[in-house]
Design goal:
This protein has about 170 residues and is an alpha+beta fold. It has helices at about 20-40, 45-55, 105-120, 135-145; strands at about 10, 65-75, 75-85, 90-100, 125-130, 150, 160-165.
């Protein structure tokens, strides 16, 4: 239809779909290269990159206690957000990512809205996440969305800061 602009859509997708696989590779490459450049002054070595991508299969983002959401703009897969249930009332946000070319176009808001809705569907009243200190853009998005720093709820080599948000009822109209 003439004059109709493409819009963002978000839908659940298998972690091993072609779109999800390509977005996982892009996400992992970006965060890995950022870490290696900061720590060693060079990007991730190809073998290390392939091992890291293969190591995290995304199984925790499969049903019945997980979901991977893929955001599309005009039909093109440009981002992801994963949600997994940790317990009866707490869900964890994982793999929030938009391709660099898609940033600043409203996709982050659409993805975060969908992730919060998915957490509520799992019975979640609280959404938590961990991230690295150098992922400043992601941290700004979380704070903008109402997340606040919380004590560590897990540990690992790349978990440096933790955030949580109490989920109210779904906003009117959803």
């Amino acid at each position: 239809m003439a004059g109709v602009s493409p819009a963002w859509t978000v839908s659940p997708e298998s972690v091993d779909s072609p779109a999800a696989t390509a977005l996982w590779r892009a996400y992992y490459t970006e965060v890995s290269d950022r870490w290696y450049l900061k720590e060693t002054g060079r990007p991730t070595e190809p073998g290390e990159l392939e091992r890291g991508i293969a190591e995290e299969t995304g199984e925790s983002l499969r049903g019945p206690d997980g979901v991977l959401l893929v955001a599309r703009f005009g039909g093109e897969a440009l981002g992801t957000a994963g949600v997994r249930r940790l317990d009866a009332t707490t869900c964890e946000l994982k793999r929030v990512f938009l391709l660099p070319s898609a940033r600043g176009k409203g996709g982050g808001t659409v993805l975060m809205d969908a992730a919060e809705e998915a957490a509520r569907a799992f019975g979640g009243r609280r959404l938590v996440l961990d991230t690295r200190l150098d992922l400043i853009e992601a941290r700004k998005l979380y704070v903008k969305r109402g997340f606040a720093e919380i004590p560590a709820y897990n540990s690992g080599a790349y978990q440096e800061i933790w955030y949580g948000k109490e989920l109210g009822p779904a906003p009117y109209g959803r």
